[in-house]
Amino acid sequence: MRLSEFILVNMEAILQEWEDFARNIQPSHRSMGVVELRDHAKEILEDISAELASPDYKRNLDSDGNTPAQIHADTRVLSGFTIDQLLSEFRALRASVLGLWSRREKTATWFEVEDMSRFNEAIDQALAESVARYTEAQGQSQDIFLGIIGHDLRTPLSAINLGATYLMRLDDADSKLIQLGSRMFTSAVRMQEIIDNLLDFVRSRSGLGLPIHPSDVDLAAVSEHIADEFRISNPGTTIRTEVHGDARGRWDGSRIGQVYQNLIGNAIQYGENTAVSVVTSATDGEVVLSVHNDGPPIPAAMQKKLFDPMQRGISGEVHSSNRKNLGLGLYIVREIVMAHKGVIEVSSTEKTGTTFTVRLPKLTA
Ligand SMILES: Nc1ncnc2c1ncn2[C@@H]1O[C@H](COP(=O)(O)OP(=O)(O)OP(=O)(O)O)[C@@H](O)[C@H]1O
Ligand SMILES: [Mg+2]
């Protein structure tokens, strides 16, 4: 008997063997019924059997174009299966078919060998589809989770912000209370930045890129405003700003504000109390923003991947202070710059210090 037919004739026995296995590995907090447990194994096997029987077989897809292996992965993500458990289910499916077959078909023929290798290929294909879908679905649910946390943290944070501002501005309070308010305010601003970065990261990873809404803005005002905010929260650091030429044009002002904010924030954090200088130079066609600090340079190897997400200085070696950071700032800066059709580069040496340079073309309406 050919393997395609064998699978159909012995479906019940194969499923039973597989079910016994799958029941053993199911997440302990779930108790699934037999129907749910066998869910798509039968359809996966029917699909494979039809494919073995005829090379021109058209895959059995649901109305949304999903294969049984993809649908299976979706349900496994929802049931809390780990990727290892999903993989072992496929191993079990393979073993129960080939085990039963070799026990019943005693005579080895050329067809048998051929069928077995085609069956293995088909299982591998189903496995690859399932794993790809599982990873995608899990990534999406993580993004949704991050998005919700980030979003929901904003409201309590703004209450802390308000309280801190109130303390900072108390006229007759003792200086310790005002200092406490100021420290709370700086921390709340930092938390807000981390949350904003996280939300932008999730948004950009969804494949849509970062949305920008250009309007008429003056980058001289934007840079001055952001630098002033940092001067308040970092009174010990000198922040120089310079503007050359007419820096008015069409960009997304709050997004470019984020660029200044991340670059200046990094310069203060990693420049080890050296002065920070922020230069905005405009010509007819473009504006060049540069943010400079001295202090330990960024190692050459690290400069190449600086703009990738989750890249932080080598802990303990370069900047031990950045363990609390997510390593998303420069990734988001680059996304914003790219959305404006601009470019960003970095130069960092012991002698000349670290300078991030952003070139933004003046967008036309
Ligand atoms: N101006 C700078 N001087 C020296 N090193 C820098 C500078 N800017 C960035 N770096 C290095 O590049 C790494 C990546 O920076 P990035 O802003 O992307 O992430 P982060 O600051 O670690 O975290 P986040 O910005 O998400 O809070 C930093 O951890 C730091 O090691
Ligand atoms: Mg940063």
Automatic annotation (TrEMBL):
Alphabetized UniProt keyword annotations: ATP-binding, Kinase, Nucleotide-binding, Phosphoprotein, Transferase, Two-component regulatory system
GO terms, molecular function: kinase activity
InterPro entries (UniProt xref): BphY/WalK/GraS-like, HATPase_C_sf, HATPase_dom, His_kinase_dom, HisK_dim/P_dom, HisK_dim/P_sf, Sig_transdc_His_kin-like_C
Domain Histidine kinase, chain residue ranges per copy: 148-364
Enzyme kind, highest EC tier: transferase
Domain of life: Bacteria
SMART domains, per the entry: HATPase_c, HisKA
Enzyme Commission numbers on file: 2.7.13.3
Pfam families: HATPase_c (PF02518), HisKA (PF00512)
Record carries keyword Transferase: yes
Catalytic activity: ATP + protein L-histidine = ADP + protein N-phospho-L-histidine
Matches recorded under PANTHER family: SENSOR HISTIDINE KINASE GLRK, TWO-COMPONENT HISTIDINE KINASE
The protein's name: histidine kinase
